[in-house]
């Protein structure tokens, strides 16, 4: 559970998904249904979710107020899912979309294709999830590439670096 309305789950095709309660629905039948609001291919089989953080967070910082869920996989991967404020999510989603134009995937695999939710019933583009590893890779770019990304984003390299570094403090 991410909050009182949104729940997170994982399934055996290495995908994550989020669903929302339909609390505002007119009928009991509609309220009983969960609406899928997020889909993402993680590439790992998640077997545990827990509320919490791997780092000490200062309560007076903006980052300290962001709720996080830790997950563990059968391969030993530990990851973080954070419920970002809408404006921060929109900004980071734009950064992620920009970065895929500058950073090639392993084996030249398209990032969008790799992160697309797929199982036996459907394939869908990833939605409502961000790839923190990809976003944090901005900090590993050369200064020239950082400037190109910043120009597309219409912000300074310093501002972009600051916002990405803030994200790294979540884990």
Overall shape: globular
N-to-C SSE series?
Answer: EEHEEEEHHEEHHH
How many separate domains? 1
Question: DSSP strand (E) fraction?
Answer: 15-25%
**Uncertain segments of ≥5 residues (pLDDT<50)?**
none
Q: Determine the mean pLDDT.
A: 92
CATH class category name: Mainly Alpha
Biggest beta sheet attributes: 3 strands, antiparallel
Strand order of the largest sheet: 1-2-3
* Count of individual helical segments: 6
Family: Belongs to the DDB1 family.
Subcellular location: Nucleus
GO molecular function: nucleic acid binding
Keywords: Nucleus
Protein described:
This is RSE1/DDB1/CPSF1 C-terminal domain-containing protein. One of its GO terms (molecular function) is nucleic acid binding. Belongs to the DDB1 family. By secondary structure, this protein is of the alpha+beta class. The protein has a single domain, classed as DNA polymerase, domain 1. It has helices at 28-31, 86-99, 111-115, 132-136, 143-153, 157-168; strands at 6-11, 15-21, 34-41, 46-51, 68-73, 78-82, 117-118, 123-124. Strand 5 and strand 6 form a beta hairpin. The chain starts with 5 loop residues before the first strand and ends with a helix. The model has no long low-confidence stretch (mean pLDDT 92).
Task: Note the main attributes of this structure.
RSE1/DDB1/CPSF1 C-terminal domain-containing protein, nucleus, single chain, 171 residues, alpha+beta, DNA polymerase, domain 1, WD40/YVTN_repeat-like_dom_sf, three-stranded antiparallel sheet
């Amino acid at each position: 559970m991410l909050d009182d309305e949104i729940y997170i789950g994982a399934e055996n095709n290495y995908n994550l998904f989020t669903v929302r309660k339909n609390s505002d629905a007119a009928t009991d039948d509609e309220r009983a249904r969960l609406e899928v609001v997020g889909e993402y291919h993680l590439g790992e089989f998640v077997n545990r979710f827990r509320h919490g953080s791997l780092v000490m967070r200062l309560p007076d910082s903006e980052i300290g107020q962001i709720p996080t869920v830790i997950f563990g996989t059968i391969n030993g991967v530990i990851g973080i899912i954070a419920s970002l404020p809408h404006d921060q999510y929109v900004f980071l989603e734009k950064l992620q979309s920009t970065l895929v134009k500058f950073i090639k995937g392993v084996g030249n695999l398209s990032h969008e294709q790799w992160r697309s939710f797929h199982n036996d019933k459907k394939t869908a583009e990833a939605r409502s999830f961000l790839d923190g590893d990809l976003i944090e890779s901005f900090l590993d770019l050369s200064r020239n590439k950082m400037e190109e990304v910043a120009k597309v984003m219409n912000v300074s390299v310093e501002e972009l670096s600051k916002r990405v570094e803030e994200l790294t403090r979540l884990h």
